[in-house]
Design a protein that fits this description.
The termini are far apart. With about 425 residues, this protein is of the alpha+beta class. The protein contains eleven helices and 22 strands.
């Protein structure tokens, strides 16, 4: 298995029939794996033996794989850490008969208790329906959005990770309407947006035993003089490394006045890719930090590579930037190699494995933590605070303005004059 620094995704596998015996076997596998591999002796202050006693009784009463998954995720949530979770299987309930797909083509964010469309993909069902960035959703299937948000049980004290998970759950709900059609209303139109979710039309990648991960990669020149290169990608996948290297080489050969790396919405991926990518941006060796577990530590070092881009760098992050994205941004920030723009990251940085369970579900479990090199910061629970924190303004999004990108371009222009 490959060590991942990827916030948990819901991945499709073939479902297996539920039975009390299989449920018990799956439960024991999960509990024993955490018991044997947890990276520190106190289990983050949790009595793991007592947890086994408490949840084993509930597992015996589970009537379905879905109910078992809920119980196991509640058990793992006792640890109050990221990168522990069970994914649902494909084919349960009515999911296998959903012939219209479950991809809306939008990204959403919770802003001051409101659901705001952050991004709309080109050629998506949402785009065709007329949805635009900055729109505030007011209802789904005639249920007030405020009521749906209340069901997420978020409080002012909720962690960034809790808010991220809640937002992902909400997007999944919007993408899985009971009648196959998503019906949305917004605060900016009298129209009702009624359309079927479609199938994902973009690229898919492979990581470990996951063979169909949707991802996107974009690079282009920005600015009035087209001298700033933007690189945007939403997952650290191995097959992207050649494209990333090529894009950085382009920035170097075209003598770009600045480089913007957009990691907003990027949940991470292969951790070691952070070191290789940073190697294309430095002229001396950098210590990124250490992954620690009960057997010792694994250092993350970046070594300079020929043809590296050495101009000014801006990195864009938000609350959906996690794991490898956080390690990458934190390292460049600590070593003053880049300026970070956006909003504090997810604070979910634990190296982990993903494996298949006896009942066919996927199980992600952390096997260590990560500490930065210079400030010795444990990024789990803390994350990366941008150098320039930018509040998302729905009105600016509706006007077609990307405030994060605008701030980064302004800073890079200033660097070019110095």
């Amino acid at each position: 298995m490959r060590i991942l620094l990827l916030l948990f995704l819901l991945l499709p596998l073939h479902a297996r029939e539920h039975s009390p015996e299989l449920a018990e076997k799956t439960f024991l596998h999960v509990w024993n794996k955490v018991n044997d591999s947890f990276y520190e002796e106190t289990f983050n202050g949790v009595d793991w033996d007592q947890v086994k006693t408490t949840y084993e009784t509930r597992v015996k009463k589970a009537k379905s794989s879905k109910e078992l998954r809920t119980i196991l995720n509640e058990m793992l949530n006792e640890l109050k850490l990221s990168h522990f979770g069970i994914s649902k299987t494909f084919g349960e309930d009515d999911e296998a008969t959903n012939l219209s797909g479950d991809h809306l083509g939008i990204e959403i964010r919770l802003i001051e208790g409101k659901v705001v469309i952050f991004e709309v993909e080109k050629k998506s069902a949402a785009k065709r329906a007329g949805l635009k960035p900055g729109m505030i959703l007011t209802s789904f299937e005639d249920e007030p959005m405020a009521q749906i948000i209340d069901e997420l049980e978020l409080t002012p004290d909720s962690t960034r990770l809790s808010r991220l998970i809640a937002t992902r759950s909400l997007l999944e709900k919007l993408s899985s309407p009971p009648d196959g059609k998503t019906t949305l209303k917004t605060a900016h139109s009298t129209n009702t947006f009624d359309f079927k979710p479609g199938f994902y039309q973009g690229e898919r990648g492979r990581m470990g035993n996951e063979t169909s991960l949707p991802f996107s990669f974009k690079t282009r020149l920005l600015g009035k003089d087209k001298k700033v290169r933007l690189i945007a990608f939403d997952m650290f996948l191995p097959q992207l490394m050649l494209r990333l290297n090529k894009a950085i080489a382009q920035a170097q050969s075209e003598k770009a006045s600045g480089l913007i790396i957009d990691l907003r919405g990027n949940p991470g991926g292969i951790g070691i890719m952070a070191t290789g990518l940073i190697g294309r941006l430095i002229d001396k060796e950098l210590d990124l930090g250490d992954m620690n577990n009960t057997t010792g530590n694994f250092p993350f070092h970046a070594f300079p590579q020929e043809g590296a881009y050495l101009g000014p760098i801006a990195v864009l992050v938000d609350s959906f930037s996690a794991s490898t994205s956080e390690i990458f941004a934190a390292a460049l920030q600590e070593h003053n190699r880049a300026r970070i723009f956006g909003r504090p990251t997810a604070a979910a940085v634990l190296p982990s494995y993903i494996e298949e369970l006896p009942n066919g579900d996927l199980f992600q479990y952390a096997i260590g933590d990560f500490v930065t090199a210079l400030k010795k910061t444990k990024l789990e629970g803390k994350g990366v605070t941008p150098d320039e924190i930018i509040t998302l303004d729905p009105a600016l999004l509706r006007a077609g303005t990307d405030p994060d990108l605008k701030a980064a371009l302004k800073w890079l222009k200033k660097q070019a004059t110095q």
